[in-house]
Every structure is written in structure tokens, then in C-alpha cells.
Amino acid sequence: MKQKRLMLLGGIRYLLPVIMAAHEQGYYVITADYVPDNIAHKYSDEYVNVSIVDKEAVLKVAREKEIDGIMSFGVDPGVVAASYVQNQMGLPSFGPFESVEILQNKDKFRQFLAEHGFNVPLAKGFGSIEAAMAERYWYPWPVIVKPTDSAGSKGVTRVDSVENLRPALEYAMEHSISGHIIVEEFIEKAGCSSDTDSMSIDGQLAFISFNAQRFDANAANPYTPSAYSWPSTFTKEQEEYLASEIQRLITLLGLKTVVYNIEVRVGTNGKPYIMELTPRGGGNRLCEMLRYATGVDMITAITRAMVGDSIDGIEQKPYNGHWAEIILHADRDGFFDHLEISKALPAEIVEEDLWVKKGDHVDSFEGANNAIGTLVLRFETPAELERAITNQTEWLKIVVN
To answer: Residue 121: is the preceding peptide bond cis (ω within 30°)?
Structure first.
């Protein structure tokens, strides 16, 4: 029997568990991007140098390599090309290419939500800084300015007045692949927002999760997530409403068997909002965290599904305790010296994954790509978790010279 060939777009470290799962299933793994030194290429069976935002170039390579499946797990820029190849080659797909294009463009996504009666912030997209400045009379201050097509919180700024608008627009444009930006109403959240992964099978939600997304107010970019914890801060009723709306969205878009990264929040106005829903596993090891916390292995499942193999074990399960993931990061540019974790931390350290060594240059925390590692923690009580995660300086120190 021919060995099945899975193509993964991107080369970041969040692909390593996907490559491992694929190898455990006996698949041949091809990784692709234009950065040969990316870490994932060291673990795949073959590397191809191609721009993952060039869907025609990716399709050409996919046909040459006679692949059986393709996805862009944890790598937002490759999702559109992966969907295009799936549909052009008749491979297992996320769903219609047009639906994926909507999900991957913040402007189109907001418009789709509004047209179908979802709670949605006021928003408008622009193709130039001058066009955005010309409509500043419209903005419901405060606003969030961001690229329509970037991930990892890169290029995102909150703006409270017109005086600070132009620098934010320039910053967003710098990080936009397509040269488009969006200005949207800032929805003040009640409690914590949620940014975690879920999965549908044949268009039906089989596993859904919500968490508490945390931020470091002192970071270079305070809108880059710095920690996550499970369960969420939502009520049961809020989670049920959001699950129903997410299922409605999946059905409207005709999506199929997909792992999603989904960001939602509840506003101080009491309304729950779907802020983002992308057909890919999230970065920051979210699927791995959920495997720790529930035993549900979405990584293996989606790896099998993308080459047309059957899947099982995806069902709603409770969390086994109270879990947190800390995104290790430096407060300033410099050279990493060491990591200190106090023994007073009231948690089981399930995993310590440090990506730098003494003497390595590290950058301040402007985006997810500036992370230097992760901590996986399990707490017995929600009170212990909350105290530890909101008072990290009491037990965690990252020394940078």
C-alpha cells in the first residue's frame, strides 16, 4: 500500500506534534515555506521551498509531490493556500474555498457575521492609510486597529483618540500581507476573553472548549496573549449560547471536518461575540493543552482526517483539574540568562518547555513569535490558579541581561 503523503504549510515549532502524530500513523510528511532554517523542517521527511501565501505555487508543488492531504496547522498565512489546494485536487477539505476566504479576512468575516444576524462589533476595512484617516469621523472610540490578514496579535493597537490613529494604521499596514487593515469597535470584555481550539466532524461540533485568555499589561504589545487557563470565566449559559452560534456559523459556511482556533468574548454590554474563527489549530500549543486537560487528541484526529483516514475519540469531555499555560517571554530586548520558578508555586509543573539557552538574544514581547517557551501547570483549585496566574512575578522570573 502506498504511504500517504501529508503536506504541512509552515515550519514553526507548533507543527512538531503534528509531524510526530503523522509519523505515528505511518505518513510521509512534507513541510513547506520559504525559510529553510525553520525548526519543523528538521523533523519532516522532506522540505519544499515555496511561499505559502502563493496558492498557485503551492498547488503546483502539491501536484508534483502527489500529496494525499494538506493543512496549515497553527500557521495562519497558509490556510487559504491549503484550502485552495484541497479544493483544486479533490482532497479532504475544510469546506468551500470561498468560506475559508471569508474566515481568513477580518473585513469579510465581520461583514458575513453582520449579514447573518450575529453579534458583531462595528467595523470597516480599508486599503490605504489615507482612506482610513478620511473616515475618522465614523470611529466609535476606543477602536482596535489591525491587519485584516495577520495572526499572533502582530500589528494590533488599541486607539483611544484621533491623535493616535495614524501611527496605529501605519503599524497595522506594516504587518498586513495584502495591504488591507480594519478598524473596529473595541468591545470591553466582562471577565476574560477565550482563545482556544475546537473540532467539528462532518460539519457538527464534536468537541468545543472555552478558556480564559490572559495578557501582560507591561508587555511591549499588551494585546499579545501571555497565558491561558481552563475552564473559562464564562457562565454555563454564555458557553451554551456561544456553542450554538459557532455551530450556526459552521453550518452557514458549509464547513466539514476541521480543527478551529476560535476567539470569543462577552462584552460588558452582556452580549457574547465570536471575534475570530479560523480553520486551523491555534498557536501556543492549545491543542496540546486540551489533550493534557481532557485526553481529547485533536492533533491525531485532524492529521488522519486530512489524508482521508477515519477518526475516533473526539467527544466532549470535562477538564481533569484546573490548567494553565504560561507563555514565557522577556520584558525587554537582551540576552537570556536563566529562568527561575519558585517552589512556592502551588501547582504541578506538568511540562517546562524552554526554547532558548543562556546567551541567546531575545526580543521584547511584541507578538506570539517573540515567545521563548511555555509552562504547563495543573492546579487543584481555581483559587490557586487565579492567584498564581495574576501574580506571576511572585514565583516566575525570566532573567535577561
So the answer is: no
CB 296 within 8 A of CB 317: yes
Q: What are the tens digits of pLDDT across the range 145-201?
A: 999 877 656 788 999 999 999 999 999 999 888 899 999 999 999 999 999 999 999
How many other C-beta atoms can be found within 10 angstroms of the C-beta atom of residue 111? 16
d(CA 248, CA 346): 40
pLDDT score at 299 = 98
| Total Cβ atoms within 10 A of residue 239 | 19
Taking CA atoms, 170 is separated from 104, 153, 155, 173, in Å, by 21, 15, 9, 5
Distance of CA 172 to the CA centre of its chain: 18
Strand partners, 328: 373
Average pLDDT over residues 77-90: 97
Q: Which of 206, 200, 208, 301 is nearest to 255 (CA)?
A: 200
User: What would the pLDDT profile of 322-349 be if each residue is shown by its tens digit?
Assistant: 999 999 999 999 999 999 999 999 999 9
Domains of the chain: 5-91 (3.40.50.20), 122-185 (3.30.1490.20), 194-400 (3.30.470.20)
- Residue 3's CB is within 10 A of a number of other CB atoms, namely 9
- Residue 376: predicted pLDDT: 98
* Residue 297, amino acid: D
Q: What CA–CA distance (Å, rounded) separates 63 from 401? A: 49
Closest CA to 127 of 135, 139, 116, 118: 135
**Cα 193 from Cα 170, distance rounded (Å):** 26
Q: What is the mean pLDDT of residues 377-383?
A: 97
Q: Among all chains, which residue has been given the C-alpha cell 496558492? A: 55
Copy the grid coordinates of residue 359. 546567551
User: What would the grid cell of residue 188 be?
Assistant: 470591553
CA distances from 62 to 2, 7, 70, 289, 293 (A): 17, 8, 8, 31, 35
Average pLDDT of the segment spanning 57-82:
97
What is the pTM for the complete model shown?
A: 0.91
